[in-house]
Amino acid sequence: LNKCDIGDHKVEKYCKKNNIPILLSIPLDKEIAVAYSKGIPISLPTSLIAFSGQNNVQAPQP
């Protein structure tokens, strides 16, 4: 789920109501957007912390 930390959360509510798992939630973050636009995978500790706090999966340890 992209830009999970903005908006009215209708997608999350729909998924929960229909038993659709959200495997990954990506916060709106300039660092993530810049890296993505350059084709660089995100592996910085700050990004891992942001991802791990909002997901149903655990981030790998740096």
Keywords:
62 residues, mainly alpha, 3 helices
Q: Compute the CA-based radius of gyration.
A: 13 Å
Structural class: mainly alpha
Instruction: Catalogue the unreliable spans.
Output: none
Count of separate DSSP helical elements: 3
> Order of SSEs, N→C?
HHH
Indicate how many domains the architecture comprises. 1
> What is the strand tally?
0
Bulk shape: elongated
Describe the structure.
This protein is mainly α and 62 residues long. The chain has one domain (1-62). It is 39% helix and 0% strand. The protein contains 3 helices and no strands. It has helices spanning 10-17, 30-37, 45-52. The longest helix is centred in the N-terminal third of the chain and has 8 residues, at 10-17. The protein is elongated and about 35 Å long. The mean pLDDT is 76.
Strand and helix map with partners:
Layout: H1 10-17, H2 30-37, H3 45-52
Short summary of the structure?
The chain starts with 9 loop residues before the first helix and ends in a 10-residue tail after the last helix. The protein is an all-alpha fold and about 60 residues long.
